[in-house]
Each structure stands twice: as C-alpha cells, then as structure tokens.
C-alpha cells in the first residue's frame, strides 16, 4: 500500500471513529458486547437486591470461562460471587436450598453438556418444588447455560440441550439473541419467582450492537417497557414466508432473509426469545399473514423445540398454510468435530433451499 493510500485509510478510520463518537454522544448508545450486557445485568441485579448470589465453576476470581462474571467477586465480595467444586449436581442442590430460604441464586453450568450430571436435581426438584408444595414454596433461581455451537468446540461443549428443559413442566426457558435482550431477559429471569433455565448462545458472546445500557436499566427497573417473557419479537417484517428461530439461529435467519431479498423474496423473521412460555400469538399471526413457514434451530430435529413449534403452527394455522411447514435443524447425530460443524449447523444456503421448497408454483 502506498503512503498516500495509507494516509487516506487512516483519515477514513479517524473520520469513522469521530462519527461513531458523535452518534454515541447524541444517542447515548455505544458498542456493547453480548457478554458485557450479561455481566452488567448480573451486576445491576446484585446491586439492587442483596439476596442475589452468583456461583459456579471458575466464576469468581477468573470471571468465568467466557468472562461473564468478570469483576463481580471484586465488587461484591466472595460471599456474593464465589467458586464451587466441579460438581454440577451439588451446585444445583445448594442453589435449591438457598432459594427455599429466601435467596436468589444465579448459577453457571459453564458449558451445555456439563449440566447433565445435575439434570436429576433440575427435573426432580427445581421443576417440581412449587407444585409439590401446592404453591407455598417458590424457587426463584436462574441456571445459566452457555450452549450451542459456532465456536469450534469439541464434544460436550456445543450441545443444544434446550428441548430437555422445555419438555420439563415447571421450568421457564429463555434464550436471548440480541445484546439488548441479553440484558433485559437476564434481569427478568433473576426477578422471576420461578426457576429459569437461561440459555446463552456462546457464539454471540463477542458480537456487538449499539446499545444504551443505562436506558435499558432504567426501562427495566421502572417497568417502562413490556416484559420479554412470553413475547416473541418480529425481528424483520416480510410478506412471502416466515422464518422462526431462537437464540443462535436468529442471526442466521436474518442473514438468510437479507439474501432472499436480493432474489425478490420478502421473508419475515420471528425471534422466539422465550421457549417457555412460548408466544403462539405472534408466531401464528405472522404465519397467517405469509402462509408459509420455516423453523430454524441448531438442535437435532427429532422430538425437539422445532418439532413443537411446527405442531403448534399446524394446529392453529392449518387453513392459512399454502405449503407444509419445513425445518432446518442440526442433524440427529452427536455434535461433530470442529472441522465439520459448518456442515452440521443451519446455514443461509440450507435455509434458502427450504424456502425454495415451499411450493411456490400453483398446482394444475
């Protein structure tokens, strides 16, 4: 590169930086990572309510494998944010006892498949305590689970385990797809009187969006915005078909909708946000409008959340459908080696192929 070109490039970078700074000053927004939004949500909840505790494997001094709990021990002390032994069943069991006695534990499972040793505690006790006590005892606790693929992780580090929890009555299941929702949904999960499985898409941790965290904090604490629980979001409007996704698949669905627009097709994208409770109304309103739908998820398709969404659309929107509802999911195999994950995960091409298969031509 010539000296002139280098100077021009530097000038462009400086101009872009200045423009970004001006926008930040004007709107109050700034580039915020998904991880920072979660970290801020934890800190704000802990500052607002002394009963909120954070614990798990390496969440203290280290700040968590993905640094989501970074700085919390230094700010709130080892009584409020602390490390535990590598014993997931014990972590959940301790959280149950704390929640039964007035605390609001927020625990981290570190990786999706690491939570399996604790599943008996979750399914047998976390999910059932409120019903078992005829409503007399709530369990206000959050189980944070970094999940899904896209990071080149090995086996036991990239599972999409949401269906296990969604199938278990008594649990709420949240999975944010945007930086703003990461903050708001974690605050709501911590405030909830019911146990919440909080699924965090690992591949989104270092994505950035322009966000005003102070405004989000104020809107949550003053209830100035409707809660996200049970409310899907229309991430993109369209008229020809509906793409329904959650968590890590929302960004892929958005990219597919962008690509489809170049081909003249208008695709609506629904971000499910909370798998339990599920917002049937928003999903069905979109499908009734477009007449066609594709459900997208990283998890294997058999007996999955995507299966449930398809079934609900079929039951509620049958007479509005112009074609069978299709799915683009992970395959019914264990998660593959890192070099093969690009073939396993839903992609823009796979989504567009499914859209093309939605019986666009009138039959004779």
From TrEMBL:
- EC class: oxidoreductase
Against Gene3D superfamilies, the record matches this protein to: 3.40.50.920, 3.40.50.970
Name the record gives this protein: Pyruvate dehydrogenase E1 component beta subunit
What's the source species for this entry? Paeniglutamicibacter sulfureus
Quote one Gene Ontology molecular function term.
pyruvate dehydrogenase (acetyl-transferring) activity
**Entries under PANTHER family matching the protein:** PYRUVATE DEHYDROGENASE E1 COMPONENT BETA SUBUNIT, PYRUVATE DEHYDROGENASE E1 COMPONENT SUBUNIT BETA
In the UniProt record, the signal sequence range is: 1-18
UniProt keywords, alphabetically: Oxidoreductase, Pyruvate, Signal, Thiamine pyrophosphate
Question: What Pfam families does the annotation carry?
Answer: Transket_pyr, Transketolase_C
The record's EC number reads: 1.2.4.1
Cite the Transketolase-like pyrimidine-binding domain residue spans from the record: 32-207
What cofactor does this protein call for? thiamine diphosphate
- SMART domains, per database record: Transket_pyr
Question: Would the keyword Oxidoreductase turn up in this protein's UniProt record?
Answer: yes
């Amino acid at each position: 590169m010539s000296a002139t070109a280098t100077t021009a490039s530097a000038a462009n970078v400086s101009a872009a930086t200045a423009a970004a700074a001006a926008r930040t000053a004007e709107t109050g927004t700034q580039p915020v990572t998904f991880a920072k939004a979660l970290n801020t949500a934890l800190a704000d909840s802990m500052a607002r309510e002394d009963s909120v505790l954070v614990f798990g494997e390496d969440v203290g001094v280290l700040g968590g494998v993905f640094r989501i709990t970074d700085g919390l021990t230094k700010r709130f002390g080892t009584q409020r944010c602390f490390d535990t032994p590598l014993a997931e069943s014990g972590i959940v069991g301790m959280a149950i006892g704390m929640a039964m006695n007035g605390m609001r534990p927020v625990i981290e499972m570190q990786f999706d498949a690491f939570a399996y040793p604790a599943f008996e505690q979750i399914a047998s006790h976390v999910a059932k305590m409120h019903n078992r006590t005829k409503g007399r005892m709530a369990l206000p606790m959050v189980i944070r689970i970094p999940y899904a693929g896209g990071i080149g992780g090995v086996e036991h580090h990239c599972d999409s385990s949401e269906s296990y929890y969604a199938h278990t009555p008594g649990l709420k299941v949240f999975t944010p797809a945007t930086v703003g929702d990461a903050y708001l949904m974690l605050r709501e999960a911590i405030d909830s009187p019911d146990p919440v499985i909080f699924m965090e898409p690992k591949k989104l941790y270092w994505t950035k969006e322009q966000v005003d965290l102070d405004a989000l904090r104020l809107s949550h604490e003053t209830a100035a915005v409707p809660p996200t629980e049970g409310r899907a979001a229309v991430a993109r409007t369209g008229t020809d078909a509906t793409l329904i996704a959650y968590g890590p698949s929302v960004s892929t669905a958005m990219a597919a909708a962008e690509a489809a627009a170049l081909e003249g097709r208008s695709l609506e994208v629904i971000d499910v946000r909370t798998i339990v409770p599920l917002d049937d109304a928003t999903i069905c309103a979109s499908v009734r409008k477009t007449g066609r739908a594709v459900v997208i998820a990283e998890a294997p398709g058999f007996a999955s959340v995507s299966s449930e969404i398809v079934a609900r659309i079929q039951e509620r929107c049958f007479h509005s459908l112009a074609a069978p509802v299709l799915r683009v999911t992970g395959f019914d195999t264990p998660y593959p080696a890192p070099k093969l994950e690009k073939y396993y995960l839903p992609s823009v091409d796979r989504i567009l192929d499914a859209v093309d298969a939605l019986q666009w031509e009138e039959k004779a």
